[in-house]
């Protein structure tokens, strides 16, 4: 027995999760109970609380619901030990129930009949069956069922007449009335009809809360006074008199709902009902309607005048159209336009101001021509071109606002002119901009930019476009005539629009590209031949650059140029069979960047087209095979430094051969793990 209980305690997860103090206390108490089982009647197995109830209640609060077994043990312990709650809590409940909780629970039931009542609750509210089965008609319910005043009066009369003959009293006086009362209550608990609710409202408005009178006169006792009272409290019924009373109370005392409920409604309507009813008044109504109902609105002459002026000063789109037509027909006769077209609602001064602020497209063009001829002489422009209809300030403001930023070509011209002539704004405006841009605009643009030559050069570089085919031919011809004198080429051929560094970079890149195209045309995609030829040419350039350049330029002819020409323009059409066949070889030998230059397509289009094909998976498999071979090399290498050099060179080769980051991330080798293995 000891081993079984100990095993149950240790096996139960709830006991393991509870605190160590509770585990120790439960374990010691169970051991003590088992030791005293043979000597003390307290420790008998019938009186002990089962392990299931212990397991279910461990870790829970002391105010949990009492089970049937706990109630039985409470009654057994009370009949043996009396009101010794401390001993009962310790021996029977192992301190899981406090003294106060045990004492209060006993007061609630008080006798053994409480357990029988709990067992009888399985049968529902069949009181007669429970009375016969569990109580043998020896005692009444004694507080388990609420006694009414009439029942107490009948009981006193019956005891005075029949004495202690409880069976006769129950059968004759209490069994039938209880059944009748239950039937009556079931009838009285029927739902309320609309006619009954209206009848209740009318009766309360006439007679107040005299529920007995209303039940007899209006409902013929089909509704009890208590039912009428509860219905009146539950329902939020408002009469017209009460609504008017609520409005008057809120206007006088504000939203002091407690005071209104006591003084005006005698606590019939709670503060919550009053608040919700007051909010429901404004549903579907605007604030203006409520203000008109409760507060008389009076308009003063000044408010009327102010409102009228506000409505007048605004012109709609139709009114602006009417104003334009009227001015085109009758000129700027504002008094006539105000009378004939606007019926003097819009004043002449208002129409004049509105017209002066509105600029048409013809006026904007006229202003541009006037500034180009006369400059910023606003007084002359106002009199000559606008007939004094536009003020000097409005013309100046319109011109300043209409100035836009210089275009890319204008900025390039401005930078070149400043380098050549300095800050001579009038000369630059006449010679380079033909007075389309005034000296003030040019100087403003110049001072907005940083005036350092380096920053001007950076801004100029950002505005440069891609190299066109004409510029590439011009560069090739200039290099064939003058060599690599980049300053002379920049001044003579490109008017300093291309810097020296940009010309040198473009020439070197074009040489490499042309050489690559020549080699591919002659030798195909044979990587070994192209590599040998390229190294030989580079070695020759190291020793004799001029001879190699001359030989290279002489080797080129018109046929090769025609063959390479389609590669110059970026292909935007669909892929041909030749391109699809050569694409995997080019990527395998030269990488995606060089392949994109050869096919003259963008890297993105090349990558998306290459990825959708089957040879993309084959290339990944090849990379994985290479990674496996290099991993074997790592295992053979003993020196960590040599292994790291091999790994970095391998990754660099992978980066050059393919720019697919996803494949590199999959196939990249963690050299540290390999070195640790070695």
Automatic annotation (TrEMBL):
GO terms for molecular function: DNA-binding transcription factor activity, RNA polymerase II-specific; RNA polymerase II cis-regulatory region sequence-specific DNA binding. Residues 359-407 form the HTH myb-type domain. GO terms for cellular component: nucleus. Pfam families: Myb_DNA-binding. It comes from the Eukaryota. Residues 66-110, 230-282, 359-403, 407-464 form the Myb-like domain. This is 1210_t:CDS:1. It comes from Funneliformis geosporum. The lineage of its organism: Eukaryota, Fungi, Fungi incertae sedis, Mucoromycota, Glomeromycotina.
